[in-house]
Amino acid sequence: MYDLTVIIPTFKEEANIRKIITEVDAVFLKNALNGEILVVDDNSPDNTIAIVNELKKTKTNVSLLVRKSDHGLSQSVADGFLHASSDVFVVIDADLSHPPVLIPKMYGEIRAGSDVVIGSRYMEGGGIKKWPLKRRVISLGATFLGRLLFPDITDPVSGFFAVRKRVVAQAQLKPRGYKILLEVLGKGIWENDKEIPFEFSDREIGASKLKIKTIIEYAQQVMDITLYSFSHHESAAWREWKKVFKFGLVGLTGVIVNLAVLKLLLMAGISGYAALFFAIVVAILNNFLWNDLWTFKDSAQRLVTSVWQRLWLFYTVSAGGAVINYGIAIALTQFIGMKIELADLIGILIGFVWNFVINRRLTWGRK
Ligand code: GDD
Ligand code: MN
Predict the structure, then answer these.
(1) CA 218 to CA 203: how far, in whole Å?
(2) Cβ of 10 less than 6 Å from ligand 1
(3) Per-residue pLDDT tens for 176-190?
(4) Which fold has domain 4-234?
(5) What is the DSSP letter of 364?
(6) Of 180, 4, 250, nearest to 103 (Cα)?
(7) Helix (H/G/I), strand (E/B), else coil: 271
């Protein structure tokens, strides 16, 4: 049995396949890893298959899966998961965009307890070489959408990652398009993740197969994972929803605290505006405490380690939320003549989204 299986999806990679296999195998040798290389090819019409078959003659740890139907990158990787003969999978592109030298590090992190290890282009130390503006913009858009589901992960659409077999073994993956990692994160069963930075360097040879259709499929995928999480409470996306619910509940307690303090101060004879101001300040403090001790209790490796700094941030973000609430309500009444109560409700909703998203990332974000 192998320690790990490096899965290489290929379509028309005759110019790169020999080099990537040789490099991965050299990394195995150098690091004393008992690794398998599984090439999953979509029946390429070029020499990819012939080259792999030739390499197989001298390298017993190389195997080839040729697929004849359901063409696609994600589908191929998912098929690779089923055919791999080890408990740890590493997925890597054939076109040398991902550095094979990082494989031992990824494997090491899995051994150390991570369920998923992601090669990240978007964390400190990572990067992208030689990408046209258009691709950068598309990728940032995709990353933004993906981060709504997994706010702690800087590169949820990376094509370079390691995963334990047990994460995907029971998962009902619906692979399509290019973003198999998002599918794994959305539907796999995992707790611990780790990101390591790497520099993506675009292919030297051959063309990328990214198309418009890929982008549409991606948006569908994000929707699908969101819906899936509603009925699969063991999924990571559901963990995120739970935080949203808790955050909302805390917000409601804030309303009660706000009204109660207001009432008390008024009874104590304090003037209306001053009482209102204190009521708001106390309510935000109430919300902070509940969120810090309950909603985001489990945030590991906090970005902001000082509780005072978190408190200060929370007040600032909440002030921003109030301004958004106010601005949107006014705009809706002014410009489309909406009734003020409804306008306020919409303002509250958008302010809530702002408060959650920014506080989740900043105040209680991960390093
Ligand atoms: N089996 C199979 N079937 N493999 C495919 C297919 C397919 O339909 N399409 C592409 N591949 C293989 C390529 O041969 C290559 O090894 C890898 O998948 C990536 O394909 P590229 O065409 O080079 O993709 P890219 O450079 O545009 O996209 C990269 O960046 C994305 C992140 O922005 C890849 O790393 C993606 O995995 C990654 O999500
Ligand atoms: Mn590529």
Answers:
(1) 22
(2) yes
(3) 878 999 999 999 999
(4) Spore Coat Polysaccharide Biosynthesis Protein SpsA; Chain A (3.90.550)
(5) T
(6) 4
(7) coil
